[in-house]
Amino acid sequence: MVTNRFARAACGGMVLTEAHSAVAAMHDSERPFWETKQLDEMTAKEWESLCDGCGRCCVHKLEDEDSGEIAYTDIVCFLFDCDSCRCGDYANRTRRVPDCLQLTPELVRSLPWLPQSCAYRRIEEGRGLAWWHPLVSGSRDTVHAAGASVRGRVILEQHVHPAMVDERITDWPGEDVPDQ
After folding, report:
1. Helix, strand or coil for residue 48?
2. Name one Pfam family in it (predicted).
3. Distance of alpha carbon 99 from alpha carbon 36, whole angstroms
4. How far is CA 170 from CA 74, 84, 142, in A?
5. For residues 129 and 34, what is the distance between their CA atoms, to the nearest angstrom?
6. Which pairs with CB-CB distance under 8 Å and at least 24 residues apart come from 77-83?
7. Average pLDDT for residues 131-159, to the nearest whole number?
């Protein structure tokens, strides 16, 4: 039996600021922070910059009460901006949406539903960042161009009748995105 209990998370916000500028200014002999640090060792700015802005962590998930199996939907939080793939009120999201999670290194290690393509998960698993990640590409647009984001594939929760949630189950949010 699938419960209508939503699990939400906000990866980190992804602000292209000082951390991105620092990467761009690096000498060729230096390695970027995501290649040299564990998640636990990152500064707040480094942590925030790891979010690729895909929005996959913001889709509602359903958990089977008996088996614990997770089913992804194409439904996103009412705060989600479907064009930018960002939270519309990131600073206040956990106050406004009590079940929204603030990702931590511990949660990255323990959340079974964190998308395979998630930068936090990739770093934790030693897979590095994908070519389309903004820290690698230098552009926020590559996450969308690569098909890694939820742009054009999700619906806001306020537009879905509660009786229709099971009809919105899909697999793509949990699938990995090819590195090529």
Report:
1. helix
2. CxxCxxCC
3. 32
4. 7, 21, 23
5. 8
6. 77/8, 77/156, 77/157, 78/156, 78/157, 78/158, 80/55, 80/154, 80/156, 82/150, 82/151, 82/152, 82/154, 82/156, 83/151
7. 96
Beta bridge partners of 156: 76
Q: Which candidate, 24, 76, 20, places its Cα nearest to that of 52?
A: 20
Amino acid identity at 81: D
Nearest residue to 81 via CA among 151, 18, 172, 1:
151
State the pTM of this model. Answer: 0.81
pLDDT digits (tens, 9 = 90+) for 10-66: 444 444 444 444 454 454 459 999 999 999 999 999 999 999 999 999 999 999 999
Q: How far apart are the C-alpha atoms of 146 and 159, rounded to whole Å?
A: 27
CB 4, CB 165: distance < 8 Å:
yes
Residue pair 87/13 in contact (Cβ under 8 Å)? The answer is: yes
What confidence tier does 96 reach under pLDDT thresholds 50, 70, 90? Answer: very high
Q: Is 128 left (phi over 0), alpha (psi -120 to 50) or beta?
A: left
